[in-house]
User: Fold these one by one.
Assistant:
Number 1:
Amino acid sequence: MIDLFSRCPAQSLRLAARVLALCAVMSSTAVRADDPGHHVHQDHHAHHLMPPPSAAVVRSEQKVVLPPVGQRSAEGVNKSFAEFVGEGRPVVVNFIYTTCTAICPPMTRVFAEVQERLGAERESVRLISVSIDPEQDTPRRLKAYGAQYGAVAPWVFLTGSEAASTSIQQAFNVFRPDKMGHTPVTFIRRQPGESWIRLDGIASAERILAEVHGVAGGRR
């Protein structure tokens, strides 16, 4: 190698320059899992990466004025959003979209676990998953999505117009202009007239049920 560089210094310098340039490109495009500022673009539908299991769930309470907008369930039922929510039983709400590959699947699996843990009491709690991508999420697509997780009534998946979806997200203070920027949040209201409990982060089924039942441990 030393002999080659000594015989052809100009060619060797050009080769070395190309190697250095290639290394620089590889370094700038390498994906580092430990770099929180890096945005993954390989999957068009991927957004915020799922927080690690140890990430804390932040609890708060807020008042929500439900907007007078309509929604359509995966079963084709048309009602106002307030009608879907306004029953006397506890209501648990999250926001998802079917092409999401990051936080939506684990959030939906948590809802499926809540449904399973309720067992014979399943009818006593309304689960609502609101699409934030109504243009793509037709009732048929939402029905197929829910079936993947074993969703059954009274768990409903809702869609509607873009304007209606935006209004609902704004009412819950979760709206982001880009769907890929939305974060994991679960809302619980035990009965009409009460404030909504807001859980920021991937809340476990156990935590959600504790909040639904007003167990002291759910307030930690």
Number 2:
Amino acid sequence: MTDLICVGSIAGSYGVRGEVRLKSFCAIPEDIETYSPLTDEDGKERYPLVLTRPIKNGFAARLGGIETKEQADAINGLRLFARRDQLPSLPDDEFYHTDLIELEVYDTGGTLLGRVKSVQNHGAADLLELHGPGLKGTVFLPFTLEVVPTVDLDKGRIIVDPPEGLI
């Protein structure tokens, strides 16, 4: 498990005074400010963060060191990370997406199906994107207790019971 968890990303500049459009990936979106300062993916650059106001699909925010529209435009797409120890502990049935990526996925009979490539959410529920040599292409599994009865982070595996005909 990685020590850094992606909690948001920059979606461009907002206005002409160095504010950025911020997408929060936190369960309570405004909580992202409490994890400040955030870092880049390597943990090398630190960004103090202040939310200035809610906007469509996120927040307008100020990041330390970003003073102009050009600087804000230059960091478009930057993913922001918090240290795992800054974040709340999760109940047993909840997981950070980053902890699921690359886990091996087995069916209930013990057959290796593939690995989790990503966790997607298009509005209804989380989907596990699976890739593997035995799959005919990308498979999206609903991340529900019925379909995914077991997630074992210690053993690095997920047990799934996919709906008939999905795989």
Number 3:
Amino acid sequence: MLMKPDQSILLLVDIQEKLMPAIAYGQDVVDRCTTLATVAGLLNIPVVATEQLPEKLGPNVEAIKELCHHTLAKYHFDACPDGLVESLPEGRQHIIIAGCETHVCMMQTALSLIDAGYKVWVVADATGSRNEFDRDVALDRLSASGARIVTVEMVAFEWMGHCKHPAFRDVQALIK
């Protein structure tokens, strides 16, 4: 199944300033999430973010905050009980999800979205955990639970669909 841009929402989970230094390859995760959100913006795809306990862990990194249409503060690891589903734009069933920590908040949110009937794609190279083993096990579990595991490049080119897309050169420049 292909991701359809008119059905897609990009969901970025907990890319928070105070959390990122503890994440393995945290700056790479930030950079890839920023690329994803920039591509989404070029293609008019809504970008939603979450922040876990923002009064303690602080806000999302500035680059992410600037690219999001909506940010949901949450206290559950799974963002759904804190109102995520209600805050998603209507009529879009494809959730492309990235963020931290892969094995906790990102995974629990993705699993709840699958249970709620959404089609979920997890952007593996834009997810992170403190421990890489936890991340890898979570990606395996998500795949076994029905999430499709993809990469930033897969998402970008699938959303565009062809090289004649008006944003092709801008997206290609971001990916390179």
